[in-house]
Amino acid sequence: MAINIALDGPSAAGKSTIAKRLAKKLNYVHLDTGAMYRCVAYKAINTGVDIASETDLCKMIVSTEIELKNDGSILLDGKIVTNEIRTDAISMGASNVSAFKEVRALLVAQQQKMARNKGYIMDGRDIGTVVLPDAELKVFMTASAEARAQRRYKENLSKGFDSDLNQIIEEIKARDWQDTHRQHSPLKKADDAVVLDTSDMNIDEVVAAIEALLPMNK
Ligand code: DC
Prior knowledge:
Strand 3 (66-68) and strand 4 (74-76) form a beta hairpin. It is built from nine helices and eight strands. The protein has one domain (5-211): Rossmann fold (3-Layer(aba) Sandwich), CATH 3.40.50. It is an alpha/beta fold. Helix 2 packs across helix 4 (88-97), helix 4 packs parallel to helix 8 and helix 7 packs across helix 8 (165-181). The chain has a five-stranded parallel β-sheet. Strands 3-4-5 form a three-stranded antiparallel β-sheet, with helices on one face. The chain has helices at residues 15-26, 33-47, 54-62, 88-97, 101-114, 127-131, 145-158, 165-181, 203-213, and strands spanning 4-8, 29-32, 66-68, 74-76, 79-80, 120-124, 137-142, 194-197. Bound molecules: 2'-deoxycytidine-5'-monophosphate (DC). 2'-deoxycytidine-5'-monophosphate is lined by residues 11, 33-34, 37-38, 91, 94-95, 98, 124-126, 175, 179.
């Protein structure tokens, strides 16, 4: 029987990569909730909406359509923005907009609607605590800021983006601080989540470790 899997953890811990792999193996649907916060920041920045105004952001969100396709592509108002929302500037913007309570409420409601049925693997910061508190498996993936920065650095280079490792380390630390210290739904391990430190693990090892935790494999 299908279950729901909540995958939380700090930025650049590899959650999306792992979730994508697991979804394929299990024939589940992967929902990358970070992409939704990224779309909000991207649209605000590109349409001149004040990113510091909760009211303006909420007004914008109610007339915005975000689609997370199962092939990994992200559509914002019908336009593919899969790569455009991955820049370091949008990462910081997403962290900023995600601190607003009403912005979160609007996106969480959409996420809960998307994962009404079982068979979802959802990655984010508040999945195990807020979005899917009843998920049958909750994993909290961590890795050192340096290990995460190295991965993001390589990813940026492979996509042809300019990249500076030290700057990424600083940005990751700043986002960690912001995401764990915000007032509303801060990044926090759910009490019943299993912690997985992936600093010294490769993708296959992380996937295998999570598979071993699945109730049907126990
Ligand atoms: O996972 P990511 O790096 O794509 O997420 C971008 C930002 O969105 C991140 O700084 C925190 C925020 N976020 C959140 O607050 N809650 C989620 N469920 C997912 C992401």
